[in-house]
Amino acid sequence: MKDATTTAEVRPHGLTLENRARAVLTGVSDVDLFSEQTIVAATSGGTITVTGQGLHVESLNLEDGRLVATGKVDSIIYDERQPKKGALRRILR
Predict the structure, then answer these.
(1) Rounded CA Rg of the chain
(2) Which are the contacts of 90, defined by CB distance < 8 A and separation ≥ 6?
(3) Distance between CA 92 and CA 83 in Å, rounded?
(4) What's the pLDDT score for residue 2?
(5) Distance between CA 89 and CA 81 in Å, rounded?
(6) Per-residue model confidence as pLDDT tens digits over 11-57
(7) What is the rounded CA–CA span in Å between residue 23 and residue 11?
(8) 22-51 residues labelled b (16+ CB within 10 A) or e (exposed)
(9) N or C, fewer C-beta in 10 Å, the chain?
(10) Which of 5, 60, 85 minimizes the C-alpha distance to 50?
């Protein structure tokens, strides 16, 4: 029997930022946190933290691994450590 944690699909990820007002993240496997100031998403390249003002998750599709956020983006930070399973993932199950 295969272990689900070792057979998880590893997707390439990408980030597109348009005029600091719209961020498109691909390869998203989970979202740990989102608020008007912070979005934390897990990708195969590590955790991406987007901070800003008036952030809004416009769309999220974990099957496709795509997250679109709007608002004023102040910073984007990569952390190679993977987060614990997110509360959003537990709620949506």
Answers:
(1) 13
(2) none
(3) 17
(4) 44
(5) 18
(6) 789 999 999 999 999 999 999 999 999 999 999 889 999 999 999 99
(7) 18
(8) ebebbbbbbbbebeeeebbbbbebebbbbb
(9) N
(10) 60
pLDDT value of residue 11: 77
Q: Whole-angstrom Cα distance, residue 72 to residue 3?
A: 40
Tell me which residue has tokens 């956020």.
69
Model confidence at 88, in pLDDT bands (50, 70, 90)?
low
pLDDT computed for residue 42 by the predictor:
93
Work out whether strand 38-43 and strand 28-34 pair parallel, antiparallel, or are unpaired: antiparallel
